[in-house]
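Could someone model flavin-adenine dinucleotide with this protein?
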Amino acid sequence: MTTATSTTPPPVSPEVSPDVPRPFRVTSKVLETSDVVTLRVVPVEGQPPPFQPAQFSMIGVSGVGEVPISISSRSDDHSAHAFTLRREGAVTNALANVAEGDVITVRGPFGIPWDIDRCRSRHALFIAGGIGLAPLRAAIEEAVALPSPERPRITVLVGARNPANVLYDAWLTGLVKRGVEVVVTVDTVPDDVEWGGATGLVTDLVATTIESSSQVEAYVCGPDVMMHATVAELRTNGVPADQVEVTLERNMQCANGWCGHCQLGPLLICRDGPVVRADRLGDLLTRSEL
Ligand SMILES: Cc1cc2nc3c(=O)[nH]c(=O)nc-3n(C[C@H](O)[C@H](O)[C@H](O)COP(=O)(O)OP(=O)(O)OC[C@H]3O[C@@H](n4cnc5c(N)ncnc54)[C@H](O)[C@@H]3O)c2cc1C
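Reply:
Sure, complex below.
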């Protein structure tokens, strides 16, 4: 007899459509920084649906609205989903104000995931700006879990505004113990704060990290301006555009390619993204609308 564990994929139940909001109960709430929280949630009935790294769900508070948020837990953890979100406006503030035990709505998952298969036996270079580390977390875990000899050299470069804005401190420290190169850099360090990491832009770390550009598979997530500069720096250092993936974020409503709210050039980000390879990007990272 086999016993179900949290790493056993749940049976697919055809009656649970990703388009229907389901009630999920908040089982834990962690304050990551002054304006970022991580909610761990489980369905009131059944199990959370399987997902792949960088996929997102539409999560909401009844009477307020719903927003796209990436699933930031491990993809082999079938017991719960985690969402790390920053307070921006009405919905993210309502979500950040929920308490353990409260019920929120979740529908999904949606979107094109990171292509982790492409980093097998290569140099997996994960580059995050600010809350962009959240959609990368599951991907980094998948890369770390690749069996030797397919397990690549793994580097995680993280940029944050200041030390108080660095996400997942303990997890990053744990990654180092698991053989991952981690470099955290901040824009500024307040006078009264001790900081043992780097200072400067995350893009400044790219050149010294790359040993063999043709072997790099890069995964980039952060504000558009940061991703634009990072893709340019990777290209300058010889990394081919088709070995770079970024995630695009635009305002979304339906998450199914129906409503057009998230159109960016030829792409509907909910359907054709959020992960897009840099050889398809053109000038999209410099456009705020259509
Ligand atoms: C695929 C995807 C994954 C995302 N994952 C995360 C995540 O893991 N964690 C997280 O904190 N946020 C994530 N976001 C961004 C999040 O959806 C927005 O912050 C949220 O929609 C803001 O809604 P609001 O009602 O709180 O604020 P609003 O009042 O709607 O907006 C507040 C400010 O945020 C801007 N904004 C609104 N929606 C977006 C958007 N989709 N992208 C960028 N700016 C926006 C508005 O222009 C405004 O300036 C993701 C967005 C997408 C498209």
